[in-house]
Amino acid sequence: MTAARAERVNDLVVARRARFRDAVVRLSERARSTELIKMLLLPGAFFVVGGFVFMFFGWYGAARTPREIEQLPYLISGGFIGLGMVFIGGLLLASGFWMGMLQRFSEEADERAQRRVDELEQRLGRSAKRA
Description:
Number of helices: 3
Number of domains: 2
Distance between the termini: 57 Å
Number of strands: 0
Strand content: under 5%
Structural class: mainly alpha
Shape: elongated
Radius of gyration: 29 Å
């Protein structure tokens, strides 16, 4: 392999790594956005409400049948499916809540760090003027 070709391959590798880093940074910014939190909260709320609706209809159907053997399909279709939907919705809501809290804590930490940097720059500016 000639030196020119090796240098060209090296340039291509460096360019590819730079594009990869940029793509990862964009993903990181997207993951921090409030859209992701909305994407968790809305379906979570629908799952919880839908799960309670399923459980209500399961109870309503079971309450209208006098024999216990006829109540089992209502219990399975309404109760268990509804309970699963409430569980999944609760997990989505909890995830959205914690992501929002982590995002808020991250923003506060960034603000505190920026204030510290500003204070240090002011102190260094004052000490440079004295010297």
